[in-house]
Amino acid sequence: MSKRVVVTGIGAVTPLGNDAASFWDGLKSGRNGIAPITRFDTSELKAKLGAEVRDFDPKQYLDAKNVRQTDRYQQYALAAAMQAVADSGIKDRIAPERFGVYYGSGIGGFETFVNEHNTFLNRGPARVSPFFITKMISNMAAGMIAIHFGAKGPCIEITTACATGTNSIGEAMRAIRHGYADAVIAGGVDAALHPLSMAGFINCQALTDSTDPDAASIPFDKRRNGFVMGEGAGALVLEEYEHALARGAKIYAEVAGYGSTCDAFHVTAPDSEAKASGQAIADCLAEADVQLPPEQIYLNAHGTSTPLNDKTETQAIKNAFGADAYKIHVSSTKSMTGHLLGAAGAIEAIAAIKALEEGIIPPTINYKEADPECDLDITPNKAVETPLALTLSMSLGFGGHNACVAFKKV
To answer: Is residue 101 part of a domain?
Structure first.
């Protein structure tokens, strides 16, 4: 018999704030976290804007020694995980062997990789840091989270590009549902906002060249021409329902469904027919097994603001919902956060959970010009208050990775 899985803790480090509460407040108010990049010189880059994490102090979470020995991506991940575990109250309330970590990164320690490569070229191999490998590899955020909390159950790092956070949550749900753990810290992180990574995304024609923060990340708008790169981390504590109930935990929502498919089509472009991406949503809905008026459903779209993604995702939603696609509520919070790559699915799951809890749909801001190929109700410009019974978070990644998770009230 499969077990029920609930969310008992959330944590976030984002361009809208460095905890879940400030992140959600920013979304509700329609605040734009996109601005000219301040961390490095963009004079030779066609893209000048980014969604930077601001005012983050890693020493709030780590001692000075550990700060020196970790990459920015690991610091963000640990901070979000610590927030989520504190929020859940699960520390010392679970057997270590029943406590797992499913935490992913799309890119890992990119900044460390570039810095140590430069050291190797300029100063020789003897000067490369002994912490180079542990700061760089993508699994180390998951490993460090497990070490910090003594979580000795399954510890899995998932990398599915921009679907990483959503796949991590979905696979963690399955691990609990089928009895492999009683609780799992799940989520995603990336901190790859760097001139080299931006140059790569620019040259594969993925980033916007807009210099106006209010006309840059504009999902579903006809003017869109690329995404804005962001950074950050999100973490959720997923817990078996009876285990959470027994310890009197606060329950945000139940993880009701999960769908995961692959376009098997192209390394960057989505399949315009949206059959596999639509199937991921349909599978998620089928597993959620709820019969609801479509007006009580909200879908947090991947909504990257690229020409191909947004119209293909619109088609995927239509494929999954049929005529009801026009009745459900949709928005893209990337209009405010930019694209956090491997962290996107994690923070957007938090947005979906908070939307369900408060009955507030965060807006797609800076929407001005309708695109007939993106003709759903995308909650333009202002948040909407309405009763919700089910929320979904959708992610689409390079390589054709599609993932969708669903949350419902307990």
So the answer is: yes
CA 240 and chain centroid, separation: 22
Token representation of residue 117 = 């490569």
336-379: per-residue pLDDT in tens? Answer: 999 999 999 999 999 999 999 999 999 999 999 999 999 999 99
Phi, psi of 33 (to 5 degrees): -95, 10
**Amino acid 1: pLDDT:** 64
Structural domain contains residue 252: no
Q: Catalytic site residues?
A: 162, 302, 339
Count of domains for the chain:
2
Instruction: Check which CATH number belongs to the domain holding 130 and give it.
Output: 3.40.47.10
What is the pLDDT of the chain when averaged over all its residues? 97
∠ CA 31-391-260, nearest 5°, is: 110
Are 260 and 402 in contact by the 8 Å Cβ rule? The answer is yes
Judge whether residue 14 has pLDDT over 90. Answer: yes
Burial track 1-33 (b if 16+ CB lie within 10 A, e otherwise)? eeebbbbbbbbbbbbbbbbbeebbebbbebebb
Which stretches of 138-297 are DSSP H helices? 140-149, 164-177, 195-203, 241-246, 275-288
Residues 6+ apart with CB under 8 A from 205: 226
* Strands 253-262 vs 297-300: parallel, antiparallel or unpaired: unpaired
Q: Which of 379, 231, 218 is nearest to 305 (CA)?
A: 218
Antiparallel, parallel or unpaired: β 232-240 and 5-13: antiparallel
Quick: pLDDT tens for 289-330. Answer: 989 999 999 999 999 999 999 999 999 999 999 999 999 999
Give me 121's structure tokens: 């070229």
Question: Domain containing 325: what range?
Answer: 258-408
pLDDT in tens, 219-256: 999 999 999 999 999 999 999 999 999 999 999 999 99
Instruction: Using the predicted structure, report yes or no on whether residue 7 has a pLDDT greater than 80.
Output: yes
201 lies in a domain?
yes
